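protien #1 (seq + structre)
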Amino acid sequence: EVQLQASGGGMVQPGGSLRLSCTASGFAFGRYEMNWYRQAPGKGAEMVSRTSASGDESYYTVTVVGRFTASRDNLKNTLYLQMDYLRPEDAALYYCQPSGLGVRGQGTQVTVSS
């Protein structure tokens, strides 16, 4: 069974930082491209980042370029998202998803508010 456990969310002031983690099991993590998505209330899901299976390359939605950094540790089956200079519009439920498997984790909530 594929499981994706996200953690690290919370409440932070604008300009603050958070580091999200997504620990995976039940599939060959190191063979899959991994993605971070977010969904704010009343809005559709948005892909935030895409990281290659090796971790050598990551791509980001334009609104987070220069502020967010995705990485992965294939020995730990874990995907990370370092989020800096957070803005109120970054507030959402963040979850990870491997490309092509059609499964996602339950996510972790990020709130950005003063």
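ok now protien #2
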Amino acid sequence: EVQLVESGGGSVQAGGSLRLSCTASGFTFDDSDMGWYRQAPGNECDLVSVISSDGSTYYSDSVKGRFTISQDNAKNTAYLQMNSLKTEDTAVYYCVICGYWGQGTQVTVSP
């Protein structure tokens, strides 16, 4: 059974940092692209960042320069380092690999 488990969410003040983790079980993702999405209340789910199997990365304009995506294949874990957080970053964050979605982790940024 394939499972993705996110962790690392929480509440932080604007300007703070959080690091999200996504650990996969049931398969290895070193040959797959991996993405982080987020959904704020009342909004659609938006793509935040992607890391490809070749290590190339993509960031949405809203997080470029503040977020960093990475992965540790030995741990089957991907990360999203989020710095200089803004209130508009408040959302549930999901990791997605090969069409599988994690359960999401809440990030709340207060003024």
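The mean pLDDT is 93.
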